[in-house]
Amino acid sequence: MILVLLGPPGSGKGTQAKKIVRDRDWPQLSTGDMLRAAIAAGTALGREAKRYMDSGSLVPDQVVIGLIRERTEQPDAKAGFILDGFPRTVPQAQALDQMLQSRASKVDRVVLFEIPDEELVRRLSGRRTCLKCGAMYHIENAPPEKKDVCGHCGSELTQRDDDRPEIISKRLKVYHEQTAPVAEYYRKQSKLRTLDALKSPDEVSLALAETLAR
Fold first, then answer.
1. Residue 73: which residues within 8 A CB-CB, separation 6 or more?
2. From 71, 123, 127, 128, active-site residue
3. How many of the other CB atoms lie within 10 Å of CB of 56?
4. Active site annotation includes 160
5. Whole-angstrom Cα distance, residue 156 to residue 128?
6. How buried is residue 133: exposed, middle or buried, by Cβ count under 10 Å (0-12/13-18/19+)?
7. 2-117+164-213: CATH number
8. pTM of this structure
9. What does the pLDDT look like over 64-104, one tens digit per residue?
10. CB crowding 171-191: b at 16 or more within 10 Å, else e
11. Sequence-distant (≥ 6) Cβ neighbours of residue 132 within 8 angstroms
12. Active-site option among 19, 160, 187, 193
């Protein structure tokens, strides 16, 4: 199965994707993770992507589409995969359809995580990331035992530039203007299902499992 998870940043789709990976052994293709890895490695793609991500703008379609094309050609993605953070625009969705059609495949199911903007700002602005091992914390929901120190490796925790309130607001504006129309694109294909992402992770997980079973 090829599953697309849609929703604004901080809606929990990445968390749910990781659970599906554990439960069903489908690989998760997260453009956010792949782009951050490229940035950390200092690749040309990473440097180009960082300029856009730091300002809260979307990474250009040609960069992301190229990344997805390369990743879906790897052996572990041949039988199916979860797309988390892609497609972000209608042209990306169209490019994905064309790419899959050339392989005699298609997107099977699309799930939209719906949640109010004010909750997203609270969730994202409270996130802290370990500079060394990548562990994630939240100052309210999952704080470290020692303030600003990773409990796994003892390294410093930091707030990502794109998790600052002013950047979050811009990211949400970009999402509503450019990414939300992707939901309508898939709704017209009768592939879209919606979930209330304001519920607890366990409740969202249960609703997602029921959606995938239909």
1. none
2. 127
3. 19
4. yes
5. 10
6. exposed
7. 3.40.50.300
8. 0.77
9. 887 788 788 888 888 789 998 789 889 999 999 998 998 88
10. bbebbeebbeebbebbeeeee
11. 150, 153, 155
12. 160
